[in-house]
Amino acid sequence: MLFDSFSLIINLHGSKKEEEENTGDIYITFMGAPLTAWPWENLGVLKYVLYGPFVAKVVYERFYEEKESIPNMSWCLHLLILCGLRGLLHVLWNSYSNMLFLTRNRRIIQQGIDFKQIDKEWDWDNFLILQALIGSLCYYIFPFFKNLPVLNVKGLVTALILHVGISEPLYYWVHRKFHGDNLFNRFHSLHHSSPVLQCLTAGHATVLEHLVLAIVIGIPILGASMMGFGSACLIYGYILVFDFLRCLGHSNVEIVPHQLFQTLPFMKYLIYTPTYHSLHHSDKDSNFCLFMPLFDALGNTLNTKSWQLHKTTSSGKSSRVPDFVFLAHIVDITSAMHVPFCLRSFSSLAFRTRFFLIPFWPLAVVVVLSMWLWSKTFLLSFYYLRGRLHQTWVVPRCGFQYFLPFGGDGINKHIEEAILRADKIGVKVISLAALNKNESLNGGGKLFVDKHPELRVRVVHGNTLTAAVILDEIPEDVKEVFLTGATSKLGRAIALYLCRKKVKVLMLTLSAERFQRIQKEAPTEYQSYLVQVTKYQAAQNCKTWIVGKWITPREQNWAPRGTHFHQFVVPPILPFRRDCTYGDLAAMRLPEDVQGLGSCEYTMERGVVHACHAGGVVHSLEGWTHHEVGAIDVDKIDVVWKAALKHGLRPVSSGSTIKAKGN
């Protein structure tokens, strides 16, 4: 839709180029055939200007012509409303199919939707523009469209007869022709290039195919109208039901119960199912029908596995136990919309506050409040890494709720239930995100391990790798650093590690007791490298600041010109100083062989996850059997870092010494 294309317009040409490089000779043939490329495919978001004449005519008629009755209101307005409803129908269907907490047990293809497929299907709504233009031509060509009643029951019956008698067999015959080598390579291969069916895949096809679909849709509407039985309800109803069934077939979620076909066996020839159509995409030589398998039966192209696979999938027992779980939480109201089941395209990009989110904010508030009252921890997304299933579960709480005086027990209950559930189903490692491992909340996960010593699932806070990522950013020639949040879990580990490297650490803390406790943990010969300071003025000559606690622009002013701010504070500090540089939050890029990853983790770029997430991944890949909770073991920092690099994870910070070395 409009906001989908707008948010990717700067990446549009890059994704097209990537698509070219990855589809080979078939793509070259495809581009050379007529009626393949969309005329407006290079316009990006500007393609929606093509709706401009329709809007202009509606405005003109509204202010300069007599008002018409509702059924005979501007045909342009009807077309705009119909396009909007069709687009909304596809988006809602796609949202439902991506609600893994509802659909995970009835997914047909278990593979995830990756970024490549999302980019390829970005302009799925091109067909709406095409069919709006065709609709406007029909209005001028056929005068009977100018005075249609609201409803004519005879028209509905006539359209149904024409659909079954003409549209269904016509589509079946043409579809089979499109699977011939020549037409398939030149046209239909684009639609079949999506490895995982999604509702938006239904719109991902060439101009020629959508012209054929326009004819298939138009026959019942034109036929009934030419007989004098046309109506507004017929046009709206037939087209929306047509799109509904197309989305159903491409949803990758089996929602049709197999008991329907057991009770009424003839129904399996009258309506297809998502499983039925998915077999067509995997087999390609069977199940060609539009919506009625009857024509596959008559044409001897019905896949014999259709009904048994449908029964197996619809039983809801097809889910797999994950090997690794990252237990996340909602950051804030706005970012709560940055999920695949809201806007798939938006969630495939790093989160940024966008203007189009503003109208949805009240609804998001209601949803978040409802989750606070009734929701449990739910499954959000997944991907595969070296045959292992990795899932992200979400605690239904926003960041601000973690700091409410009465919220702690409830949040810990959610986290504990998630850990126990993971343990029960056989998850090997569960990693706690950000506030879910807050020291004051549960001691970095130690509360749960102490309470349930028999846990088989390994609980990991991931802070060891977080510390390693931050330490990797610090140049080897640095001799002095200024550390805020110095007595926190991460601050303590960073200070103890750096002092062993003979780096002087100015630890900002007002608590002499906490400072001395940390200092005593350091080897005697290195304790002098740890220095307590109580004011920011103490760092006015230090150009390396490690920020673990939020600092204001005023406090940043104490840093000398040329200072680099490394940080592990959430949210990141404001980049106030133009004469200084600011590091990124600790994060790592997943290995290149990750599969089915199609959503970004908050503000991280594609393929990048927070270091605590990556720490859990390393724990899982290494097969370590210990829990990583409570205080960070400084001796394990280098061990975890080397393990991460060994498994192909890479730092993303511009200041990384690994990146600087080109490794």
UniProtKB/TrEMBL annotation:
Q: Which residues cross the membrane?
A: 79-103, 124-142, 154-174, 211-239, 324-343, 355-374
Q: Where in the cell is it found?
A: Membrane
The GO biological-process annotations, alphabetized, read as: lipid biosynthetic process
- Residue ranges occupied by any Very-long-chain aldehyde decarbonylase CER1-like C-terminal domain in the UniProt entry: 481-651
Transmembrane: present as a keyword of the record?
Answer: yes
Q: Where is the Fatty acid hydroxylase domain?
A: 161-301
Which GO terms of the molecular function aspect are on file? iron ion binding; oxidoreductase activity
- Membrane disposition: Multi-pass membrane protein
InterPro entries annotated for this entry?
A: CER1-like_C, Fatty_acid_hydroxylase, NAD(P)-bd_dom_sf, Sterol_Desaturase_Related
Its principal location?
A: membrane
* UniProt xrefs under Gene3D superfamilies: NAD(P)-binding Rossmann-like Domain
Keyword annotations from UniProtKB, A to Z: Membrane, Transmembrane, Transmembrane helix
Q: Name one GO cellular component term.
A: membrane
Q: Which family does it belong to?
A: Belongs to the sterol desaturase family.
State the name under which the record lists this protein: Fatty acid hydroxylase domain-containing protein
